[in-house]
Amino acid sequence: MARKALVCAAASAALLLSPGLATAGDADGLSGRELVEQAQDNLLDAESVHLKLTDRSVDASTSTTQPTSMDLSLDQDGNCVGSMEMGSDGGSVEIVKQGGEVWMKPDTAFWKAQVPGGEGDAVAELFKNRYIHGSTRDAMLKGMADTCDLTSFQQEVDTDSSDAGKLRKGDETTVDGTKVVPLKGVSDGKQAVLYVTSDSPHRLVQATRKGDGTDMTLSFSDYGKPVPSKTPSADETVDVGKLQDELQSV
Fold first, then answer.
1. Contact assessment for residue 106 and residue 90, using Cβ atoms and an 8 Å cutoff
2. Digit-coded pLDDT (tens) for 143-171
3. Which of 41, 125, 177, 211 has the fewest CB atoms within 10 Å, counting from its CB?
């Protein structure tokens, strides 16, 4: 599920950000350990962040319920806006969340993958280009709503790791135009790279894990930038109760 994917991504970041993985020595006076510690602290302290996940792993690519990509802006107040795309032609869905309210707009492929038989086409046509709106307490929306939880993500990142590997420092490079220091190593048996900004404040820009069927990239930007507050209009929305009624009828 989407929530599982985000937790896995957070766990990957946690594993990589463990200060015990960092090597010593840095040309600008900071040790690798200090770079990792500062990157972790800045991620944990962030009131908001833009997160992008690309998962080309075998499990994600062959599952209609696990996203192969997520693009989310989220904050500690429970606000979120973004989208995700499922693997194996499972479609895509747009998400807007403001506090306790959530809006979800799946595409036709998503409905067809989630609703069995030909009924998926009927549901897709009925709710075409409209958001399903309800509370974060609604069972049908809760899974998506939980994905938009920066605090939970940060709690996962704060989890200690006992991985015995070491990260070695590479030469300065750029990621999306930002100068970064790559820290490379092995995490849980897979090749891992952390890209931390060269300049202060030292922040995590990207983390990758590859090997043994895993190919995941997690990118971070817009630390502290407010999440857009615009919500879909009433004309664009359908109450989740109508969706529940429709699904019961099919």
1. no
2. 878 888 898 888 888 765 444 347 788 88
3. 177
